[in-house]
Amino acid sequence: MSSKPVVKFYRQLLLANQRRKLSSKKLTLKTYGMFLAIKSNRFDFKTYFSLKDCAYNKPLHLADLITNTCRLKEPKCLCASLKPLKKEIKLVQDGLIKITDALWKLISDLTGCIIPLVPKKCQDSPYRTITGECNNRKNPSLGATNTSYKRFLPAAYEDVYDLPPGWTDKLWNGFYLPLVRRVSNLIVRAEQWTKDSERSIWFMQMGQQIAHEITLSLPSPTKTDFYDRSNCTTNCIREEPCFPIKIPPNDPKNHSACIPFIRSAPVCNLESPKREQTNGVTAFIDGSAIYGSDNQTAEELRDHTNDLGLLKVNMNYTDNGHPYLPFDPNSGGACVNGTPCFKAGDFRNSQQPFIMVSQTLWLRLHNNAATQLHKLNPTWKGDTLYEEARKFVGGVMQKIVFYDWLPLMLGSKMAEFLPEYTSYRESLNPQLANGFTLAHRIGHTLVPTTVYWLNTNYEVTSQEPLHKTFNAPSFIVNNGGIDPVARGMMVNLAKLNLQNQMMTDELREFLFLLQTKLGFDLASFNMQRSNDHGLPGYFDWRRFCNLPAPRDVNELSLVLQNKELANELMKLYGTTKNINFWIGAISEPLVPGGRCGELLACILGHQFRDLRDADRYYFENPGVFTKEQMESIKHVTMSHITCENSNIGEVPENVFLANDPNDFVKCDKLEKMDFNPWKM
């Protein structure tokens, strides 16, 4: 995009102020600071506006502009907020400047920032929208793509508005915050790891599939800082949006001064200067990781060579008669070993072999469902077949999440936080809570170190350290397809989260090592992201959940049931009030029958109940499906999906539990998915 109309826009703003005889020294518009940045050539416009015209990029542009122009080295530039529905720019000190219709159109066209605020015309449709809009008819933007996270607790920024804790050397409750990498080294590191005797790798992997369904904290659209054009990925400068993770002395990574880290992009918040982050996908469990969260992606994934409602499949490889996900022609060098990344509704689909297996099975389920529906209803058009198959897949995913997976995560707390479903509640807010985006990262503590390939006798034929398989679809298409890895996911065990074995070095030292040459630290990322999002500390979250909030090392020892761990945390943080939310939450002992502590059970439970009860299209909400269709969906498990969409001949009754191949059930003994209730 050319910067000329943008420069013209800022000049118009400047002239508007001059006509009102306002001194530029008193001008308080952030946008004026942006004009100064353009004028002085201190803003990387070419990089900033050369991004692909993805549905989520445009709103991020203005959000970044508004948030960051005030942080330019122009002391006269202060904060302001735009009031789009009133067509005025509010000055902190100087009153209001009216915006002409033409000028406002320019703002809207350049940024797309007004889009979430424009009243929606919602259709009365049996199918949910791709973007999640209009699920709630009173507030159509709730849960939609590119809207903000909600907050269970107010943000705790260093400067109240947007500076994350740790940005400066400010004292917190009388103590300096420790480096997150140091906390990772001393608390999170697992030199050895213990297998979970009751959960399979599939249990861990379903957690990631769910995460990709409902949350995506979008990074800033630019990787260069707003002042000196330094690249966040190659420079340790701490200037917006760069928030590098410092490397402490005597660290294995001390050959580098930092681990690169880019802040999450702020949402288009035109009415408040306080930073809120953007969820780049729909908040609903709706199959968006399969179909996409924006209309452009959804259309690109559909197979329009026929009128059968199918999704596109790979045209270069097949998997012993079954299709693969299509390749993404725009993935560039994101994937390694000469094979492009796969393409699905969520771009994180090729991160490692387990997620590739999961995404492939869900793709095949859609095409299988569309094919069966076409046989039952040969007069249905392609759009109807696509929507009905998509609706079926979304219902199946909801059933598996709420009936098969979540009880194994929440254990004894399941009934407390998710009582039996009654009805849709329009007054509830389905948006993802900012705290939940970190709470759900408990799944990172369940990831094992190795990927195994198993033959039909469930014997290991090959294995690779997990980090060597990151972003490498070649390990699937050139090594026997998804079946050998899927067998390993059913019989091999997930990692058990123990207080002295929280995360393996595959994620803590070698994350994306082949792409970065440095190797990232996911534990440090999680703690830094918690700070980036301004999340309050562990102490405040305990109080939110009406749990005892430990005030000293003795009370912390009681909560954690571990005096040694409590002492280590207090040495690092000085006070319980400074303990990082994520590290405190994953340090708690597991609830009976579950795989998280009592704090995470509370936060996960609150969020999943909102996702269920605030979703008008939840599969058990009367009228979404017929009674017969709903009963058919309730019978579907991941075992059924595996049997009917792969060449695997035997499966466990529950793929999420630890299983012995000797106890597997032959697929031809399983009741097949029943599509007859959809015959019209």
Task: Spell out the key features of this protein.
two-stranded antiparallel ribbon, globular, mainly alpha, 680 residues, disordered N terminus, 15 strands, three-stranded antiparallel sheet
Sum this structure up briefly.
By secondary structure, this protein is mainly α.
Number of strands: 15
What is the CA-atom radius of gyration, in angstroms? 25 Å
Give the quaternary arrangement of the chains.
single chain
The number of helical elements comes to: 25
Cα(first) to Cα(last) distance is 50 Å
Principal-axes shape call: globular
The amount of beta strand, in percent, is 5-15%
Structural class: mainly alpha
Question: In terms of per-residue confidence, which ranges show pLDDT below 50 for 5 or more consecutive residues?
Answer: 1-58, 69-99, 108-112
Estimate the mean pLDDT confidence. 86
* Largest β sheet strand count, sense and barrel closure: 3 strands, antiparallel
| Order of strands in the sheet with most strands | 1-2-3
Helix content: 25-40%
Q: How does the SSE layout of this entry go?
A:
Layout: H1 4-19, H2 30-39, H3 45-48, H4 57-68, E1 80-83, E2 88-91, E3 95-98, H5 101-111, E4 147-148, H6 180-188, E5 195-200, H7 201-214, E6 245-246, E7 258-259, E8 278-279, H8 288-291, H9 295-301, E9 318-319, E10 322-323, H10 353-376, H11 382-410, H12 414-417, H13 434-439, E11 450-454, E12 460-465, H14 474-477, H15 483-491, E13 493-495, H16 505-508, H17 513-516, H18 522-532, H19 538-544, H20 553-560, H21 563-573, H22 581-586, H23 598-613, H24 627-634, H25 638-644, E14 650-651, E15 665-666
Helix pairs in contact: 1-2, 1-5, 6-18, 7-10, 10-11, 11-23, 20-21
